[in-house]
Amino acid sequence: MPAADSVALDGVALLLIDGIAWRARARERRMRIYRGVGDILLEAIDRRDPAAAEHSRRVGTLAREVALMLSVEDGEVETVSLAGSLQSANKLFVPEAILRKADSLSESERAKVDEAAQRWLRLLGQISIDLPISAVLKAAHELAHGLRPGGLDESV
Fold first, then answer.
1. Using one digit for the tens of pLDDT, what is the confidence trace for 106-155?
2. How far is it, in rounded angstroms, from Cα 86 to Cα 108?
């Protein structure tokens, strides 16, 4: 009788291992797709504003390095890395004249840049992925504008 039990348990163990391996491969495929889409967006940004695309790549790399130093979970490392890489994607929606302007931006031009960021965040929020990229970028945008993530003012 024990031999039959161990054979049955071996089969269950193999099924569990196979299921885990399948999930890991599926997650790796998704991450390659996310990275591929990110690379396509960076290429598009690069055509409009080469400095922004390179800056985004550096931010993504730095975010990954900091996350690894902090020993965060793999999914969080990928999230901050990808979010960092995509933080300038709103430039796809900024008028070219503003992108190329050498002087300081006027209030109306700043408003257009902010509108572009909001548009990018709305579009990104519509994409169903298993990483909270949109939430991370929204929080970063709020922090850059003197707000606490979630819309709370610093003074509160």
1. 999 989 988 998 898 888 878 777 777 778 888 877 887 777 766 444 44
2. 24
The answer to whether residues 89 and 120 touch, using CB atoms and an 8 Å cutoff, is yes
Distance in angstroms (rounded) separating the CA atoms of residues 10 and 23:
20
How many C-alpha atoms does 130 have within 13 Å on its Cβ side?
9
Collapsing DSSP to helix, strand or coil, 148 comes out as strand
Helices (H), the chain: 2-48, 50-69, 74-86, 96-99, 107-125, 133-144
Q: Which residue has the tokens 């945008």?
A: 141
How many residues does this entry show for the chain? 156
3-class SS string, 83-123: HHHHCCHHHHHCCHHHHCCCCCCCHHHHHHHHHHHHHHHHH
CA atoms within 13 A on the CB side of 76: 8
